[in-house]
Specification:
mainly alpha; globular; about 230 residues; Arc Repressor Mutant, subunit A; 2 domains
């Protein structure tokens, strides 16, 4: 009996594909707080059935990245809007781990890998000029995680990613005000300069300044929203 020409597709492979696609979109800020993540739309976009999409969404709900919003056959989940305290706690995690990762990256960085990270910074700048918000967000995410990928601490990277997953949609609240002016661009430039010098302390300080600036600006927005609600 001849063997089949094609290997069957494992259900877990589709589940992973759906989870990774949703995670990447959330990390890049492509979903905003309050937005519905419609299962049928995700399944159609990925060209797969609802079952693996539902499994992936259930995992994101368990990780507190999404909240339940009618998970029937054609249901949806909801991207939560963090309050000021929740956001601040996540930014505390980021401010603790990301500077450490940047400092470690400075010790392991190669010119080629720094060039690759700097290319994302240039893409951020081009995206602002061309008013391409989605591309800006994607490049911003890749800029940061391109640095952390050099730190040599995969467990730390995973924890950083978990914090980003939960706060990335809320970070989009500052886009209308801060993207046109590239408000935190100087921190990004300083990070690249520090990596090229192998100066871990300066790289950590630049990343910490970037995070604390975002915490201040977005925390103020969330505080005002809390007063109005």
């Amino acid at each position: 009996m001849s063997s089949p020409r094609l290997k069957s597709i494992e259900r877990s492979t589709l589940w992973d594909r759906a989870y990774d696609a949703l995670k990447s979109a959330l990390l890049a800020g492509r979903f905003v707080p309050g937005e519905r993540v419609v299962l049928r739309k995700v399944a159609d976009d990925l060209g797969i059935s609802l079952t693996p999409v539902r499994d992936a969404v259930n995992r994101l709900i368990a990780e507190k990245v999404l909240v339940r919003g009618g998970l029937g056959p054609a249901g949806a989940a909801i991207v939560p809007l963090l309050d000021e305290d929740q956001f601040s706690q996540l930014m505390t995690v980021r401010a603790s781990l990301e500077p450490m990762a940047a400092a470690a990256a400075a010790a392991h960085a190669t010119p080629e890998r720094i060039d690759a990270v700097e290319a994302f910074l240039m893409e951020m700048k081009r995206s602002v000029k061309e008013n391409r918000t989605e591309q800006y967000l994607d490049a911003h995410y890749k800029f940061h995680f391109g640095i952390y990928a050099m730190c040599g601490m995969p467990i730390v990277e995973e924890i950083i990613e978990s914090a980003w997953l939960r706060c990335a949609p809320t970070l989009t609240l500052a886009l209308p005000e801060n993207i046109p002016s590239l408000k935190r661009y100087s921190s990004h430039v300083a990070t690249i300069a520090a990596l090229r010098k192998g100066d871990g302390e300066a790289a950590a300080a630049a990343i910490r300044g970037d995070i604390e600036s975002a915490r201040k600006d977005i925390g103020a927005m969330l505080r005002e929203r809390g007063k109005r609600s």
